[in-house]
Amino acid sequence: MLRPRARRIRCHGAVRRQRPRRHPHHAARDLHRLQRRGRQRRHGDRPVAHAHPRRGGRTARHAGLARGCHAVSTPPAPNRLAVDVSASRGGFTIEVALGVDAGETLAVLGPNGSGKSTLLAIIAGHLAPTAGTVRLGGRTLAARRDDGRVDELPVERRRVALLGQEALLFPHLTALENIAFGPRATGMRAADARRDALGMLERFGLAEFAGRRPRELSGGQQQRVAIARALASRPDALLLDEPFASLDVQTAAEMRRVIAEQPSARPIPTLLVTHDPIDAIMLADRAAILQAGRIVQEGPTAEVLGHPATPFAAALAGVNLASGIGTADGSVEVIGPSGARLVLRGAAGAVEPGARASAVFSPGAVHAARADDGPPAASAPPVPNRWAGTVTSLQSAPGGVRIVTAEHPGLAVDVPSAAAVSLGLVADARLAFAIAGSDVSVRAID
Asked: Which residues, at least 6 apart from 64, have a Cβ–Cβ distance to it below 8 Å?
């Protein structure tokens, strides 16, 4: 009896069936059929590595599905990821030079449209650079020649795993089969791939969900499976493109904990793109701020978020950034839009007189009082770490109210709700502010 949708054709007087053509996007299903045929012919999983599609060959389409995977029999030693490239896409140009060592995580933060995802696309092989090179260990992933041609490895040979906001699991495969897919597609024996996949499920606390399909898993569980699948393929580098953005607060916190606790038996460089400073604080050894396609600040995470160099980074870290000129006593003098002067002095560190400098402090570290009974509203010369202001905006803040003044609109002051009530905060109210030098960090601007 013929199968549904099969057609009859005559061949030398006999009738045989002809299978309908398959859609090219059914590569995952095709690959498993090829593997099944090989096992039936007692070839094991060898057909995956052969080239003849009718005998279980792995076509380029199947290789693309295993993107970020590599033959795990003799994996090369992981090494430093070095990127020094420029590229253009849709009128936007990115010029980036950075490096990530094996076992190190670099968090790249920046506003929308700054080029973060473009950077990952260049490394993963989805976008060719217009100049420069991408190297991973002793291999060159992409390089632009002098004659304009690009030498680059195909995506499936880069051994780079890319994980985005969506898990993108194969819907017809179980959690175990999803994780085992990468190693199996690169030639690992089925039993070995399943054993490794079970180990990954146990590491991520998902052993009891091994037989479930993606639709039977929660969003957090799907993302865990996706990360396990990326690591099971044993990549030489891991790229994370805001992997927690689509998760709720509690699930995202759990995912950060899971990733942070993963053992580093095979250290690889990890590049994490995120908007959330919590991701950088918990997971990254270093952080880089990317704006308009350029890295404007890079260094240890505590330094980048503790003393940001740009207003965006300051807003990201939740601190005030005041830029000005160094004074004779090592303080920073800031001139507001209306000409109001503010001198900020830190307990440690000083800047050269006349040098461009900045001061950073938390909005919650400032004490606010009525101008008539608090610190002096004005003086000549100004008293360090004391200033006055007229309220122009009152905004909601965690646990209280955020105050913005006309004299220094770029600086915010947070006060508790009880203090806001006692101050009788209203628009045009005159307030005096003071901050301890130990809460101020001053630094010269390079």
From this structure: 27, 155, 156
Which position has the token pair 């839009």?
337
Q: What is the mean pLDDT of residues 15-24?
A: 49
d(C-alpha 429, C-alpha 342), whole Å: 19
Per-residue pLDDT at 28 exceeds 70: no
Q: Cα–Cα distance between 323 and 318 in angstroms, integer?
A: 16
Q: Strands, E, within 170-251: which ranges? A: 237-241
Beta pairing partners, 10? 15
Return the closest-CA partner of residue 429 out of 397, 404, 399: 404
DSSP state of 4: T
Q: Any idea which residue has 């970020």 for tokens?
A: 68
Q: pLDDT tens, 172-181?
A: 999 999 999 9
Contact status, residue 94 vs residue 87, Cβ threshold 8 Å? yes
- Residue spans per domain, the chain: 1-50, 319-444
Which of 134-143, 201-210, 256-265, 314-323 has the lowest average pLDDT? 256-265
Q: How many CB atoms lie within 10 A of CB 329?
A: 11
* Listed residue (367, 385, 374) closest to 329, CA to CA: 385
Q: State residue 204's pLDDT score.
A: 84
At residue 250, the 3 state secondary structure works out as helix
Q: What is the reported pTM?
A: 0.74
Q: Contact at 8 Å (CB) between 200 and 228?
A: yes
The shares of helix, strand and coil residues in the chain, as percent rounded to the nearest 5, are 30, 30, 40
- Check: CB of residue 343 under 8 Å from CB of residue 332: yes
Instruction: List pLDDT tens digits, range 202-232.
Output: 888 889 999 999 999 988 889 889 988 988 8
Rounded distance, CA 300 to CA 316, Å? 16
